[in-house]
Amino acid sequence: MKSELKHQNLKYFNTFKLNSYTDHFFIVRSFKDLKFTTNIFSDYKDTIVIGGGSNIILPEYIASLVIKVDFSGIRMISNFENTVLIEAYAGESWHDFVMYCINKGWYGLENLAFIPGTVGAAPVQNIGAYGVEFSNCCHSVVAWSLSDGKVIEIPVKECFFSYRSSIFKQELNRNLIILSVRVLLSRKWNPNLEYFKRNDFLSKTPEHTDSINDFIDTICSMRKSKLPNIKEFGNVGSFFKNPIVTKEIFLNALNFFPSLVFWKQGEDSYKLSAGWLIDNCGWKGKKYGSVAVYDKNALILLNQGSAKFDDVMNLAALIASDVYCKSGVILEIEPKVYY
């Protein structure tokens, strides 16, 4: 079949369900398709690679080359006495991959269950939940270099993972198509409960049970209680990062909000609850055009049916400006925004 670009509305390729039109859409399903992307790569100023579309905000019209990766599959690379090295291809559902590993008796990803999106997006955002990040289990990332036209393997140390970020979200965003991830998992289930201990949530977790199923049910229930039904309201989950600030900024914010929710990160570093700040600045349930702040979780913006890119960004700017004026804290948008 001839490799070619096509016109496409990306509404159903992004979970915020924004209408976004491009004449430069291409789905990668084979090595031949990868070579085609290299041949046309230099014709474009920018490249957008999408998976499940759960961490992107797209404009109404896109002049960039838009690539969707459709590789799927899971395989064991190495089988050690206590650990296994597993490779999952970029097009796999992240949650399905987590459950597949659990059912095989491979552990380490449990706290990341029920996170939307595909495997290929996991390293870009360094997805995380309940005290665990993708980087904790990552061995390496396999990608296609658009400029060189070859497959490369990037060790975890060279991914430069940080809070909701990586080299794939920064310098290498344009040049690489992530093909698969390789994770090192344990054969023994040893639940990570540090987040729950720090936040006094042990009563909500199956601490005293040996059942992995109970643990997963609890994780999924907690996430469902915080998230709107994505089939009813388009959204990207958390819209803002929890800001990590210096002691000076923390104390200043605490002066305005004595009940501020925070987590001490180090000698001079504090992570603040962005959702708590937004809520206590009065934004929960507020609307702008067809975009609204979720009335059960102020960290989430909702498409109420006909949201436009400008509405989303204008509401986000109003929220960030208000939080800064009232607390001195700068909020950063978590999903990748394309203009």
UniProtKB/TrEMBL annotation:
<dbReference type="InterPro" id="IPR036635">
    <property type="entry name" value="MurB_C_sf"/>
</dbReference>
<dbReference type="InterPro" id="IPR006094">
    <property type="entry name" value="Oxid_FAD_bind_N"/>
</dbReference>
<dbReference type="GO" id="GO:0051301">
    <property type="term" value="P:cell division"/>
</dbReference>
<dbReference type="InterPro" id="IPR016166">
    <property type="entry name" value="FAD-bd_PCMH"/>
</dbReference>
<keyword id="KW-0133">Cell shape</keyword>
<keyword id="KW-0274">FAD</keyword>
<keyword id="KW-0131">Cell cycle</keyword>
<dbReference type="InterPro" id="IPR003170">
    <property type="entry name" value="MurB"/>
</dbReference>
<dbReference type="GO" id="GO:0005829">
    <property type="term" value="C:cytosol"/>
</dbReference>
<feature type="active site">
    <location>
        <position position="164"/>
    </location>
</feature>
<protein>
    <recommendedName>
        <fullName>UDP-N-acetylenolpyruvoylglucosamine reductase</fullName>
        <ecNumber>1.3.1.98</ecNumber>
    </recommendedName>
</protein>
<dbReference type="Pfam" id="PF01565">
    <property type="entry name" value="FAD_binding_4"/>
</dbReference>
<dbReference type="InterPro" id="IPR036318">
    <property type="entry name" value="FAD-bd_PCMH-like_sf"/>
</dbReference>
<comment type="function">
    <text>Cell wall formation.</text>
</comment>
<feature type="active site" description="Proton donor">
    <location>
        <position position="238"/>
    </location>
</feature>
<dbReference type="GO" id="GO:0008360">
    <property type="term" value="P:regulation of cell shape"/>
</dbReference>
<dbReference type="GO" id="GO:0008762">
    <property type="term" value="F:UDP-N-acetylmuramate dehydrogenase activity"/>
</dbReference>
<feature type="domain" description="FAD-binding PCMH-type">
    <location>
        <begin position="18"/>
        <end position="188"/>
    </location>
</feature>
<dbReference type="InterPro" id="IPR016169">
    <property type="entry name" value="FAD-bd_PCMH_sub2"/>
</dbReference>
<feature type="active site">
    <location>
        <position position="334"/>
    </location>
</feature>
<keyword id="KW-0132">Cell division</keyword>
<keyword id="KW-0285">Flavoprotein</keyword>
<keyword id="KW-0573">Peptidoglycan synthesis</keyword>
<comment type="pathway">
    <text>Cell wall biogenesis; peptidoglycan biosynthesis.</text>
</comment>
<keyword id="KW-0963">Cytoplasm</keyword>
<dbReference type="GO" id="GO:0071949">
    <property type="term" value="F:FAD binding"/>
</dbReference>
<keyword id="KW-0961">Cell wall biogenesis/degradation</keyword>
<comment type="similarity">
    <text>Belongs to the MurB family.</text>
</comment>
<dbReference type="GO" id="GO:0009252">
    <property type="term" value="P:peptidoglycan biosynthetic process"/>
</dbReference>
<dbReference type="GO" id="GO:0071555">
    <property type="term" value="P:cell wall organization"/>
</dbReference>
<dbReference type="InterPro" id="IPR016167">
    <property type="entry name" value="FAD-bd_PCMH_sub1"/>
</dbReference>
<dbReference type="Pfam" id="PF02873">
    <property type="entry name" value="MurB_C"/>
</dbReference>
<keyword id="KW-0560">Oxidoreductase</keyword>
<keyword id="KW-0521">NADP</keyword>
<dbReference type="InterPro" id="IPR011601">
    <property type="entry name" value="MurB_C"/>
</dbReference>
